[in-house]
Amino acid sequence: MEAVPRMPMIWLDLKEAGEFAFNAAVKKSAVNVPRDFEGCSTLRKYFGQLHYLQSRIPMGAEQEAAVPITWTEIFSGKTVTHEDIKYEQACILYNLGALHSMLGAIDKRVSEECAAGAFTYLRDHFPHSYSVDMSHQILNLNINLMLGQAQECLLEKSMLDNRKSFLVARISAQVVDYYKEACRALENSETASLLGKIQKDWKKLVQMKIYYFAAVAHLHMGKQAEEQQKFGERVIYFQSALDKLNEAIKLAKGQPETVQEALRFTMDVIGGKYNSAKKDNDFIYHEAVPALDTLQSVKGAPLVKALPVNPTDPAVTGPDIFAKLVPMAAHEASSLYSEEKAKLLRDVMAKIEAKNEVLDQFMDSMQLDPETVDNLEMYDHIPPILMEKCAALSVRPDTVKNLVQSMQVLSGVFTDVEASLKEIRDLLEEDEAEERKLQELLGKVPPPQGSPPSSSVSSSSPGLVEVSKECSKYMEVHEKASFTNTELHKAMNLHIGNLRLLSGPLEQVRAALPSPTLTEDDKQVLQNLKRILAKVQEMRDQRTSLEQQLREMIQKDDITTSLVTTDRSEMKKLFEEQLKKYDQIKVYLEQNLAAQENILKALTDANVKYAAVRKALAEVEHKWNTTVQTLVASYEAYEDLMKKSQEGKDFYTDLEGKAAKLLEKARAACQAAEANRQQILEREMKKQPPPRPTAPKPTLQKKPPELEATGLDTGDLPPPLGSLELPE
């Protein structure tokens, strides 16, 4: 896998700046930065100086020195204006992350940790109402995309460095985890509406990568099993890797050639590994192949981090050019309070993320979708694909009739050909029998059955030999075609009933489809499970809402005015008092997190009771799908059956004509052979010496032994031969 072609990465466009009543030269250098790391440095310096500026001059929303600031929104192209210097900071921070994403997508594949760090700082420290492209949902999406792509870079390096298989598997599994989070964001209806057209393209690429890197993870788990000589585990991991890669290939339709090349390369690697492992296990090791779900899941190793952004780091921002404007005491105190708020948010988010991880893993293991947990509505309707086939047959009412008639005609021609060939064979056998009788009568050693008699006394003609050869050839062709004809009739019998069903009333089609039969207890189990699943979703929604409320409170919490009038010695006390405003929402979040354990326990119990119902529903669904596929296959087989039936008729019609001609030829040849035998018999009899005269006896004349063997009556012989009598 070291030489696998690289997958493409997603990068973000930079926002375009508009009006801002600031020094033109400074503004120009900050918004028209080069697309390289020097540009990143310029953006960081400008962001830091804006931070110093806004801490001294009242340029925030609704403040005395606020001026209009305009930027273009990425997705819609509309200009958005706010009279708030934090809007300028937010847009610069967004561009910093976007520029890092752009640099991370180039061939060198540098780390994208800074991109994720910029978006994380933007999400946690600025309002999300400035513009759509800086909403909480979009920023979360960007963070997970950047972390996933950074982890992907690390995975490439790990494979090039030949790191241990288990570590590579964990790194790849973490790529999958990050992309799953990004995919959840992309599937959110609100996010999709914000992104517009690019949502589908990103979602397709991310979904494909989820399966691709899951395949890479299981490939390396298989390699680890190989290193540990666990040959059964090796087979199942490689098989799983192959299955996931096939899913990635399905999802890669429409992706660029670089993706297809990477998939082909990986298929060669995984396919070769799987075939070799399976062959070795089947013929050498004979180890039992365990089920994949019995093996320990691969836990991701998050080895990349969103590096924090520090707007006051002089190593990044350079010297504070506004240092002499305002004393730094209030700014320093505000920064300390901001850090206290950030610490509170980090503590709360750590708990939320831990619970969310447990919840996600639990739900993934359950494989329960609230929308399709019973899927009973599916059985109330004929699926659209079957409706389409029924509609197509409704305008062709003679479909079944035409197929049956076509097969009947084919059967008739087939029978005629078989009868003609049988008659030819019977004529040849009869002629051969007569020839043998003649040879025995004449005292000749009969030739082996099927061989032509001696030319000296043989009555066989070259015509019969030719007929025999042609008959053998036709019989061989007929026997081969007979097998095809039989298979064609089997196929017709297989599909004719289904075609009749599809041509009939829709009620009959609906009745032919399987449907589940649930008891009242089964229905109660289903209702209980759906109720608890709804509770899980309610818990998720409430948790997300509380988290959003907390973030908004922190964003709006500005105590700068209070800090200016507070003595430095009282700062700690002021912070404690101000932070109490978050106690209530923290209590609500704690209650929400604590409820998870009880809800999941109830869901576990409900799922145990649901197991039997789930199995029954799965079986019915399988039968339903099989029935639908069978009916569709019968419809699609119709044209092929008609075509092959016509080909069969054409073939046997041609063979029938040839067999009929050969039959006439056989009859003529047999008649000629019979006449020839009569001539030979007469000739041979004339060569016999005449018998000595004897007195007539009153008894009937005894047949000669030669005629006794043939069964011929002397009256059937020519007159001279009929009056002869064999010697005593």
If you had to describe this structure to a student in words, what would you say it looks like?
This protein has 728 residues and is mainly α. It has a 3-stranded antiparallel beta sheet with strand order 1-2-3, covered by helices on one side. It has a domain at 7-111. The longest helix is centred in the C-terminal third of the chain and has 104 residues, at 583-686. The chain has helices at 24-31, 37-54, 85-104, 113-125, 136-160, 165-187, 189-195, 198-227, 231-251, 257-285, 314-317, 328-366, 384-394, 399-441, 462-503, 506-512, 520-556, 560-564, 571-579, 583-686, 705-710, 719-722; strands at 17-20, 69-72, 79-82.
Structure at a glance:
This protein is mainly α and about 725 residues long. Helices cover about 70% and strands about 0% of the residues.
Series of H and E elements: EHHEEHHHHHHHHHHHHHHHHHHHH
State the low-pLDDT regions, or none.
452-458, 698-728
**Helical coverage, percent range:** 55-70%
Q: Structural class, from helix and strand content? A: mainly alpha
Choose one word for the global shape.
elongated
The percentage of residues in β strands lies in under 5%
The number of E-state strands comes to 3
Main sheet makeup? 3 strands, antiparallel
* Distance N to C terminus: 102 Å
Query: How are strands sequenced across the largest beta sheet?
Result: 1-2-3
Number of helices: 22
Mean pLDDT: 81
Global Rg: 46 Å
Keywords: Coiled coil, Cytoplasm, Endosome
GO cellular component, one term: endosome
Pfam families: ALIX_LYPXL_bnd, BRO1
Protein name: PTN23 phosphatase
